[in-house]
Amino acid sequence: MTTTARPPATHAHHPSTSTTSSAPPIWPTLLSTVSTSSRLPRKQLLLLGGTPQSQTDLIATLAPARPPPPSRRDRTRTPRPVPLANAHALGYTYRDLPTSDGEDVLARLNVYTLPDASGAYAPLVKRLLTAETIPHTSVAVLLDWSRPWDFAAEVRAWVLLLKKALQGLGREEEDALDGNREAWMGRREEGQRSEIVDTVGGGKMPLGQGEFDEALGLQVNFVVGEVGEMERLERERGWKEGEFDFVLQFLRTVGLKLGAGVVYRAPGAEGEVRGVVLGGLVEEERGERVRHNVVDRESVVVPPGWDSWGKIRVLREGFDIEGFSRAWGVDLQDGGSTGMGEEDGGEATSTEALYAARIPNPKVEDRSAPKIEVEHTPDQIFMAAQAERLDAFRAEDEVTKKQKSQTRRTNAPDDNNGRPSMNEQIGPVQFNMGGIQYDADEALKRIKARTKQDTTQAQGTPERTRTRESTPYTPGSPPQFEAGKDIPVENLEAYFASLMKGGRGGSVQNSPRVQSPRVVQKGSGEGSSS
After folding, report:
1. 251: exposed, middle or buried (C-beta count within 10 Å: 0-12, 13-18, 19+)?
2. Which residue of 220, 247, 251, 405 has the fewest C-beta atoms within 10 A of its own C-beta?
3. How far is CA 398 from the centre of its chain?
């Protein structure tokens, strides 16, 4: 049995080779069309400073979450939050900027964060600034009202970091920076023409004094948060309106030189914050400009290009705007030549010195880095220094003791630190002995005087002429007393002793007869029997 292989059957409707090769590719064309229509413009935002929480809050303010889609199947889905890695070094996240009604997306916003103004971050920032990204880049410097005394140092450090990152860019990048400056001038003229009807000659409006003379070519804005701390400063630190106005005038002066805006993150001011930070990146549908507000202390809004020296002076008199403007230029030149992070403390023209003169730091800390090495004094040197101190203390103690001893010798015996003596407290001591009124105080004074006289004679002083009181009594002779004076105790004792001796072996006839101790015996023979 043999089998025969049949040829494959041919269909009449099979397309020819020429027809297949001439048909256009459908799917690539459709995919390219969809990709082009859904492509979003890319914007870039640099958040400098602040804390991770304050950076997160500002991002939520700039790009609020979109409402869920209206479809029934997607209503139960909650949009997954995009993570933000801003705890260390250069952080990154992205957000979609919605329209005012939230139905469409204006642009994709790439957000980069930096925690501090270290010079090591300059190469990282430089990589983000290319000819394509510079026209669509905005910079926001975050400040905090909990530390207003650090505003001058923080602003200067961030500006120096940006200047260092912009050094050494290529020709295309420099052209992009010049384009940003021209765009800023255009927005400034447009905003000022809306306020001033007629301009000079219909041409470009000239720049004012101290305006846009330190421009970086990047859109920079100062965002000040934690406005609730202003009440604490007023309550605990004693701040007045003058201090708050001074801080605002400083920020506006520096912002005017950079072409930057100033906005306070007050509750309910989300639209103003978005308008200032993203004003040069995203054009709103209605094209409305942000209105300025310098009257409300907690809701300050100063759009870029609106301010001037005259408007800053009107806020409060006494602010040295010329001095701050001149010192700012000097500080940027010195900081740019010496390196990042150097403090110009001690200079009279320094911006930080002028700022600290009005807004001092209540907690002055040593900003120098801690040293690993510890200086140690040798034991012998330390002990020698301590011995010298002990000798000095010992000498002081000796001098004090000598002074106290001299004071005790010079003071009277009854002088007890100014207190009255015992005699002054109890008064004179008098008593009656055998009908004789005896004054003890007077007798004591005479005894002291006699003792002092004997001491003086023993030391070589010439002997004074003896009186009847000082003449010693000779036993056997009658004592002689002077009328009107007290009888000496010593003479009385000698007199009575002679009487006792005379009574034992002496003659009674030789004994004097004394009628009264106060009667003066004028003759030795008087009073005795013949």
Report:
1. buried
2. 405
3. 45
Structure tokens at 418: 């100014």
Residue 118 exposure: Cα atoms within 13 Å on the Cβ side: 10
Query: For residue range 118-155, what is the model confidence (pLDDT) as tens digits?
Result: 889 999 999 999 999 999 999 999 999 999 999 999 99
Q: Which two tokens stand for residue 233?
A: 């400063």
Pull the structure tokens for residue 189.
Answer: 């003229």
Q: What is the mean pLDDT of residues 284-307?
A: 82
- Determine the Cα angle at 291 with ends 322 and 96, to 5°: 110
| Residue 244 per-residue DSSP state | H
Which one-letter amino acid corresponds to residue 510?
N
| Cα four-point dihedral sign 252, 287, 175, 49 | positive
Query: For the whole model, what pTM was predicted?
Result: 0.60
**How far is 335 from 474, CA to CA, in rounded Å?**
110
The Cα 93–Cα 96 span in angstroms is 11
Burial of 191 (0-12, 13-18, 19+ CB in 10 A): middle
CB 480 within 8 Å of CB 492: no
| Distant-in-sequence, close-in-space partners of 330: CB < 8 Å, separation ≥ 6 | 349, 350
Is-contact 219 48, C-beta < 8 A?
no
What value does the mean pLDDT of the chain take? Answer: 76
Task: Tell me whether residue 524 is exposed, middle or buried, using C-beta atoms within 10 angstroms of its C-beta: 0 to 12, 13 to 18, 19 or more.
Answer: exposed
Task: Tokens for 56, please give them.
Answer: 């997160």
Q: Residue 245 class from Cβ within 10 Å (0-12 exposed, 13-18 middle, 19+ buried)?
A: middle
pLDDT number for residue 69: 56
Pairwise CA distance, residues 26 & 92, whole Å = 39
